[in-house]
Design goal:
heterodimer; A: alpha/beta; Rossmann fold; Aminopeptidase; 3 domains; 8-stranded mixed sheet; 5-stranded parallel sheet; 25 helices; B: mainly alpha; Non-ribosomal Peptide Synthetase Peptidyl Carrier Protein, Chain A; globular
């Protein structure tokens, strides 16, 4: 496998079948569901195939056919280059990530006009996000080798322009801005000195990229790191002078599928659709050889052995992923004791048993095992990645559980870790404290489950957990995690409304909106932020519950009762006399169909779609008081403070 | 590769780009095919390059009037 083909040909995706043209044609003629589009998008498609798939989706949209269960997303695109050939690729690649993408784009060369005119196509597009897809030719760059002052002024001018574009869009649209770093042209002026000397093209673009990253950090906006992408495939492969001359294409057409996949995975990350767990096979994946046949001394997993080092590199990547919050699990066809032995007794193993949230070694088929792992972790199958060297196992899991991502692997294990990393399953747009500790939460959960078995009796169990719940209104410290929860909670989520960081910021400052963020600690550790509530004040002294969601990690702990009691307390202080709420059914939230009924709300209406409406009189509200210590902080007017 | 083989391979290229079966003949040009606009023209050129493993120069691309011209340029290159 050539290094470059790995990226430009998306080699982690399976090759399209021979009859792909026919399958794409069928999509246009039949009443295809969103899932069928997604399943065809999940092959490594070339530009023509992506274009056809996007056309079929456009046709479905024109005919008012539903693309459900794909998640609708409106993206505005602003570019100094020709995007027309890229946009169909974006639409098809987004389907790969479960998104029904609609693209609004401005005419070529209208970047400033579109951004600075309040009534422009982009500014009135009501988009969820704006992709500011500029390449270096869009910037006012003056090459002044060796002139530090002039170079600083040029960088300043470019940054001012980028910030002005972003601010103008923000003034008009409540959307996330996705800004691109700049791939420098490959031609050098002096040679290696270019990077040293201020005012050269390389030096200017390096500086701008650095300042742009600093500008975006903590802003709630998102960086699409095109500079790194271009460097990864090679600048000489990335840029194409003929294509720029011919039609103002910013980069080589061969790279469009790769670029489109990177845009799509970024949008998926904004929507909280990135994968959360990595399920690993053992034999010939985590080590060379078969532990049941070769034994502890026979398997290859040592430094100094080419094959062993390849597998160690994969272990290192898995461990690094775990440190950033990806949950690890094992699915292996082995007897349990033998499968565990390398982790317990082989000195060279980097991964230990304690790093896995679930360890499934048995002789059942892997699809059954993966389903069990998902259940144990309370995660959807679409949060799972399954890595296995065996093409038969990969094929089986793909066909039985199409929601699970199963990367193709080349024959040579030296490529395993690079292939897994290149696939970008765990793309993130923010990194919160909770992420760092998440992998640990799931282990605590496994221990809590064991603890429950010993104690018996749910209430006694809950009391023994010594839970403390801390309530706070939305605040800047919690914001990133609040946005994350809002965008990725699917199961315990009454309305599944998604909000972006700018929208949450707006809520923090809106006195007509009552918000809650909850943290839960217990004897096993800190669960971090686990629940979010948003109430909007409507006429007649009513709070309408816009959003109520909870992490499934803390199911069955009666947290929702404590939340209701806290809401009622604040409602009384605010002279609110009624709470209203709705349950909007999705494929994933059956869990909460009876949420309001269980809390004593009265059903007021039921729509054909299954959506139900509920209300509760604040004065008559009665609720459970589970054994929990409650702390309230940061509310205005201040409540009574700490109540036991 | 003889002319018949070039036309046969071009038929696949056209189907790939325009998403329909097109009778590829020397006189065929943009006005004969629905959806053959400047953008799909570039996709046609890029797909042809890939399929025959050749690269056209920008000036060559500018002189193409119909499929006959395209085949003439391909013949020079393979």
């Amino acid at each position: 496998m050539s290094e470059n083909n790995l990226y430009s040909q998306l080699q982690w995706l399976p090759r399209p079948p021979q009859n792909m043209a026919q399958l794409l044609k069928n999509l246009q003629e039949e009443d295809a569901s969103g899932s069928e589009f997604q399943s065809l998008a999940s092959y490594a498609l070339d530009l023509n195939q992506l274009t056809r798939l996007a056309r079929a989706m456009g046709k479905a949209r024109l005919e008012d056919r539903s693309l459900s269960p794909l998640d609708p997303f409106r993206l505005a695109v602003l570019s100094n280059a020709t995007m027309d050939m890229i946009i169909p690729a974006l639409i098809a690649s987004a389907a790969r990530y479960g998104i029904a993408l609609e693209v609004i784009h401005s005419a070529y060369g209208q970047v400033a006009q579109e951004a600075f005119t309040p009534g422009s196509t982009i500014n009135t597009s009501n988009s969820d996000a704006v992709l500011i897809a500029l390449d270096y030719r869009a910037l006012p760059l003056k090459v002044t080798p060796g002139e530090l002052n002039a170079s600083t002024a040029t960088v300043h001018g470019a940054m001012s322009y980028l910030q002005a574009l972003r601010n103008a869009i923000k003034d008009n649209l409540n959307a996330v801005c996705v800004m691109q770093s700049f791939a420098p042209p490959e031609e050098q002026l002096f040679g290696s000195l270019d990077r040293v000397l201020p005012g050269t093209m390389r030096h200017l673009i390096d500086t701008i990229n650095r300042e742009l990253s600093a500008y975006i950090a903590g802003s709630g906006d998102v960086l699409l790191d095109v500079a790194t992408l271009a460097e990864t495939v090679g600048l000489a492969e990335w840029h194409s002078a003929p294509l720029w001359n011919l039609g103002k294409f910013a980069f080589n057409d061969e790279m469009i599928p790769l670029y489109a996949d990177h845009v799509a995975r970024t949008l998926a990350a904004i929507r909280g659709k990135s994968r959360k767990a990595l399920i690993l096979d053992l034999d010939n994946t985590l080590w060379g050889g078969v532990i049941g046949d070769d034994g502890l001394t026979g398997i290859k997993i040592a430094q100094g052995d080419a094959r062993g080092e390849a597998h160690l590199a994969l272990q290192r990547l898995a461990l690094d992923l775990r440190k950033r919050g990806v949950i690890l699990a094992v699915s292996s066809k082995n007897s349990d004791e033998i499968a565990r032995s390398p982790f317990e007794r082989h000195p060279e193993m980097l991964l230990k048993l304690e790093h896995f949230a679930v360890f499934q070694a048995n002789w059942q088929d892997k699809a059954t095992n993966i389903r069990a792992i998902a259940e144990e972790l309370s995660l959807g199958l679409d949060a799972m990645v399954f890595l296995d060297d065996n093409p038969v196992e990969r094929g089986l899991v793909r066909s039985v559980l199409p929601q699970v991502a199963v990367p193709e692997l080349p024959e040579d294990p030296a490529w395993y870790s690079r292939t897994l990393a290149a696939a970008g399953y765990f793309e993130a747009v923010a990194f919160a404290d909770e992420d760092r500790r998440r992998a640990g939460f799931y282990h605590d959960n496994a221990r809590r489950a064991a603890h429950q078995k010993q104690i018996g009796g749910v209430d006694a169990y809950l009391a023994s957990l010594e839970m403390t719940i801390t309530f706070q209104p939305f605040d800047p410290t919690g914001r990133a995690r609040i946005v994350q929860l809002i965008n990725k909670s699917n199961q315990y989520n009454l309305t599944t409304r998604r909000y972006t960081e700018p929208e949450i910021l707006e809520m923090e400052n809106d006195p007509s909106i009552f918000t809650l963020q909850l943290r839960l600690a217990d004897i096993f550790g800190d669960n971090g932020m686990i629940s979010v509530v948003i109430c909007r004040t409507v006429a007649g002294g009513v709070w309408d519950i816009d959003t109520w969601l909870m992490s499934c990690r803390v199911l069955g702990r009666k947290v929702e009762h404590v939340v209701l009691s806290e809401m009622i307390r604040h409602a009384r202080l605010a002279e609110i006399n009624k709470l209203t709420g709705a349950y909007i059914p999705t494929e994933r939230n059956k869990l909460v169909v009876d949420h309001y009924a269980k809390l004593g709300f009265v059903k007021t209406a039921e729509e054909r779609s299954g959506k139900t409406h509920w209300e509760l009189c604040v004065n008559n509200a009665e609720f459970d008081n589970p054994p929990v210590t409650v702390v309230s902080r940061g509310f205005v007017p201040a409540p009574e403070g700490m109540i036991a | 590769m003889d002319e018949a083989q070039i036309y046969s391979r071009l038929t696949t290229v056209f189907e790939d780009v325009f998403d329909e079966e097109i009778k590829v003949a020397p006189g065929l040009s943009a006005k004969d095919v629905e959806g053959w606009d400047s953008l799909s023209h570039i996709r046609l050129i890029l797909t042809t390059e890939k399929s025959f493993n050749i690269k056209f120069s920008v000036s060559e691309i500018g002189t193409l009037e119909n499929v006959g011209d395209l085949v003439a340029v391909i013949k020079k290159r393979i």
